[in-house]
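Anyone else keep sequences and structure tokens together like this?

Example one:
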Amino acid sequence: MSARRLWIIACALGLAIGLAACGQNSQPTSVLNNGVYVDAGQITYQLQVSRELNPFTVEDKQYLAGLPSGTASPSANELWYGVFLWAKNQTKRPEPTADNFSIVDSNGDHFSPIKLDPSVNGFAWTQQTLAPSGIEPGLNSTASFGPTQGGLLLFKLPTSVYSNRPLTLQIIPQSGSKGEISLDL
């Protein structure tokens, strides 16, 4: 085979591989969920990280600060699960971020986040009105400098969710259509 023909085949193969990446689904149903952008209402959200939290590690213990008084620790059949979100207002007017979220398992069971006290937990997601091009978590905030760079939604889930995957985070805005992100567990 001539060098020219080999070079043409190599270029064609490189082009095909490059173009194959252009078809990446924005709503993956696999573990390729981190970094996906989803619109809910007028705000764009991005899943930074979602994972089970271990209250006995230094990093994860700080995420559990600010629990409502009387919140029981997870039982042997429950777990803490953190969803860290980033949001941006890409409109030309102020818009509110969502304050209504739900995780839905494959059985259709819905789980709501536990409201954390943001004055105690700097990672807690807080509903707010974002200025045009405004982001949450805000610049120079604890959450923006943290390892996840996202605002925390904390869930207490039954361990049965491991058998009822996939999990879907529903982002329900004050107005407009909801957004959904597949979660890895």
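And example two:
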Amino acid sequence: MNLDDNVFKDVCNLLNKNRINFWICHGTLLGIIRENRLLPWDHDMDFAVWDHETSKDHIVNIMLSHGYQQQVITADMDCLHFYGEEKKIDISFYKVKKNIASITWAIPPTDIFGRSILFISNNLSKNNYEISSKHNISKKKIINIIKLFFLLLGHTIPKKMKTKLNSIAMKKMTYTGYSYPMEIMKFKNIDFSGIKIPVPFDSEVCLEHTYGKDWKIPKQNYIWYEEADNLISQIED
């Protein structure tokens, strides 16, 4: 069993042990259903819970108490992000309205100014432990030094200034997310990597709902907020 499988299995067991009603979703579900594996190019592991059933504080306490580190992302209020063994774990909190299950994520800005403000705002917090596996060891060390600088700066600048930076960063971001009709949000357990995991009862329908009719064709450079078929903004417009 490789590192990805170990971390995935650990998180599943941890959520089950704490009686969290969760399911596997998004890119992680795609890899398991299509290829019976976690996609090696996917940068995170995707889990989901119902917002009305589980509090964010409870999930944070569970994960932190078992050695995972939290990454706090500016304005991304419907998802919690953690790191363990240099693997990223995302836990999405789905809300239900008018028989539609949906989640909203914040999309980072693409311009240099917006990206810089977001980076600074994120790293003024002691809780930002983002690690990118695409960076080599030397680059990781440089990034960690920069992060440490802003962490120390965060202890010295006024709270009013940090709030202002956060506000600017939030305004530079855009917001959208996935949505699903509640009739397909029913779940069952399947066997994967030696454990039982909860997935949508008709996972193929859910995957087609997001990735389109060609969801069985691997695409490593998929950009979810540009290519997904079930974005909230498309439905509301």
